[in-house]
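Lay summary

Proteins are chains of building blocks that fold into shapes. Our project writes down both the chain and a compact code for its shape. Here are two examples, one after the other.
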Amino acid sequence: MPAANGFVTVTPDTRYGAAVESGTANWCYAQKFTVPVGTWEVTEIGGYFNADVGTSGWFHLGIFGDDAVNGCPSTLVADSDSGALSRDLPAVDKVNHAYSVTPQVSGGDYWLVVFWADGNLNISSDAVGGTECSNNLATYPTWPTDTQWHSHFDGTYDLSLYAVYQSTTIGSKIMLGSMINIG
């Protein structure tokens, strides 16, 4: 499978985007995507990251609902926090988390979010084309609240974040293709 981001049915095997966006301690970067109609379970979340030379970087990944009124994430989807993940090499590579308890999502808009513990990491991205939202009102690893997200900064980066989903009613993965990035 080629590079992909958003809600996908198969794990991407190459990075999405040729640029990189730097992380900063206690910042959350969120990317908005649409999930198709239906009820789905998310089996994996990930992205393509690299660390600054000679460092290690820590972060969490999660899925948030959409606050359409304020144009930002709302609350963390139950069971979608990846827990602490890290990257310690300067080459861009996939970092992912396979869920043992799968989060559930239904058709509609969601945000894939990376929450930086420090400023030692970068995420692969495209410089334009996405709907990105970010803020620094929470302290790692406690996710921002719905109200904290209301104070946010918008950008056009298209981040290399993805979540693999499948039907909750069929044991095998449904091949619907990549979801469209809202941008």
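And here is the second example, written the same way.
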Amino acid sequence: MRIQVIDNVVGDMLTTLSSAIGDTQDVRIAVAFMSRAGLAMIDSALKLALDRGATVEFLVGLDMRSTDPQALETLYSVCSNHPTAAMYCYASLTPAGIYHPKLYLFKVDQDATCIIGSSNLTEGGLKKNVEVNAIIEGTTSDEAISDAYNTYNRLKFHPKRVVPDEEFLNLYRQLCQTEASLQARASSDANMRGLVKAFNQKTQSMRRPAASERDLLGWLELVYRNLPAGDFTNEQVYGFEEAFQRHYPDNLNIRAKVRQQLQVLRDMGMIEHMGTGRWRKI
């Protein structure tokens, strides 16, 4: 098996998802929330897969009314026009716990790709938000991938899962519109506006977590340990390329990985960016 992590900072979910959908014979997606913009972002990949005869299946959550009614209606139309496409909805409006999975499965013969993480099928989840998603590539005989498909089946055959029709989608749209109206009235309340302002001001004044060497492991620890004191350049760090390669012999792009680690160390506040290719160790 091969495992990697994408977070929309280094590698984005949209590119990964679109490529996987376009290349597969079998797509299974279980997400808590879906938006019109998110669905539109994978539209071309979906059409490519469906035109090729791939089986495409969606399990979508409706609790919290966070799924866009128009996205549901669009996907319903796609499924109505393609015999190999299907959509099923998790219909509970008052669950003890919310329906919250983000599971993407793709299969070609016995080869399978599984993506598990935090990205919903929304524009934010696929492109804008900072997310964490693990991509597992292997075969259907690998235990981890087999378990992922078993989890998908438990979600699919949950007693609250239904096959939507037009009346169902219309009622859901009305629910969303009514709740949006109630929320709009609440947001115009003067006391609510004051609380939001005070909270935002307080947030801006709060301390941030302080990074230490305890937070470093793997690649980050290796790079940080080899950084010169004070000012340094990318080229100086590249001087340790052979040593890095010995630690990670399967990595074929060491310099790109080094630059990535420098950016993470910058975001952690452990080094400062001084200009193109120049840094300072704090």
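What can we say about the second shape? The chain has two domains: 2-168, 213-281.
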